[in-house]
Structure formats: structure tokens, C-alpha cells
Amino acid sequence: MTYRQLDESANIVANRLIEKGVGTGDSVVLLLPRESSFFSCMFGVNKAGAAFIPCDPQYPADRIRSIIEDSGAACIITTADKLEDHAFYNAIDVSSVITGENTSDPDINVSGDDLAYMIYTSGSTGKPKGVMLRHIGICNYLMPHPANTHIHYLKHHIETYLSVTTVYFDMSFKEHTAALCNGKTLVFASEEEIARFDKSGNVLLLCRLDSQVKLRGLRIELSEIEELIAARPHIKRRRSSFASWGDRIIYALTLPPIRKLTWIL
């Protein structure tokens, strides 16, 4: 998708939702697979003035129901095969909400204090809790100011960025939204590729994608960097950037030299 196509697709979603009564102060659950329509709906919900709530279709039914009920969502955008399961919660077929002719920008006022999205904790210490994030905080996080080292580096040194983190975990914003809000090319790995993204398949996937689109940025486990370099020797010969996490988080690794690391504790 081009940026123009994404913008127009998001406008179609926004105008569809507004027709259905969704507006500022509302929230919409996105119960969607890992496809480009997720981004059309994510930005479309915001363009309608509402907040989106990412919810993995693979979650247990009780967890999905808990998120829907606790959030008080105005509606759910999901796939046709899930409509009957969630009809009670005003479920909308994603195929109907992303198709239309009204690609104009909605006339909606959104302030920095309005909710951008809400994401639920894992519930490992009890019942999952919704964490509310405002537009002002997200804009601050994504701004490529020199003091915002990670995003500043992304803005000025990376053209294509790989996203492999589930969109239902807020860490994914370091990948997809950071790239899209800073004019970069996002390489969005599919569900099938993610399913193979284990220690052995990880590097194989990266090598294949690198051959296709010449990746310039990705997030990778530190232990796999040497394996990746061995598999793709040309990485040593060009400026490549990596972000990683483990006991500590690396926000930028520039090769060469591999010993040059910067840590976020």
C-alpha cells in the first residue's frame, strides 16, 4: 500500500463508522488477523475521533469477552467468521467497513487529551486491565526529536523497517506506527511468517525479506545477530540498524563495528 492508499482506506473506515454513530469519546475493538486492513481500521477509528482497542482473535473467548465488556466499546470490527460469535456486541464485518467511495477526511476535531487507544495487560497478576493512552503521549513518543533517540535514529538512518511483534502488544508501536508516522516503508510480516519466527526460522525469514526489500531496520534478539551476519555477509558492508530486548534493551546497533552498543536500562 502507498501512503495515499492507506490514508484513503482509513478515511473510508472513519466515514463508515461515523455513519454508524461512532464518534469522539467512543472506543472500537479491533478483533482482526495480521493483515493490512488492521492499519486501515486502526487509523480509521482515530480519524472518526474514537479510540481503538487491539484484541487478538486467538485470545481465549473469556478474555475477549472481558475486554469487550470492560471497555464499553461502541462496536467490534472483525472478520465474517467471527460475526456470529460477537453479534451481541454490535460486530461489524471488516470487509464492509473498508469498502466504500467516501475517501474524504472526516470533519472531526480530536484533541491531544482524547484517547488514542486502549490496550489490555496480560492479566498474569489477576484480571486484565485496560491501559488508556492519549494522543498527546503517542505523538510525543513518535516525534523524531534528538532527545527521543530511538525514533530520531529511525527517522534519519532507516528506510525500511520490519515488524514482527504482535499488534496486540504495545511494543509493536516501536515497529509499525513508528515507521508509518515517520514516512518509512513498513515490512509487515504475515501470520504464517510470525508462526515460523522461532530461533532457527528467525534468521531465515530475515534473510529472505532482506533479499526482497533490503531491510535497513528491524528488532532482533542479540544472540542472533552473529548468526544473521554469517548468513548475510553483505550486512557488514552497509549501514544496518537493529533494536533488541532481553535483560536489557538495545535501541540502536550500528554495524560495523558490532561492539558499538547503546543500552536502555
Describe it for me?
By secondary structure, the protein is α/β, with parallel strands linked by helices. Helices cover 35% and strands 21% of the residues. It contains ten helices and twelve strands. The chain has helices at 3-19, 37-47, 61-71, 94-97, 135-142, 149-157, 176-180, 191-195, 199-213, 225-231; strands at 27-31, 51-54, 75-78, 91-93, 115-120, 130-134, 160-163, 185-188, 217-219, 240-245, 249-255, 261-264. The strands form four sheets. A four-stranded parallel β-sheet has the order 2-1-3-4. The protein has a four-stranded mixed β-sheet with strand order 9-10-11-12, with helices on one face. A hairpin with a 3-residue loop joins strand 10 (240-245) and strand 11 (249-255). Helix 1 (3-19) packs across helix 2 (37-47). It starts with a helix and ends with a strand. Mean pLDDT is 78; it is low at 235-265.
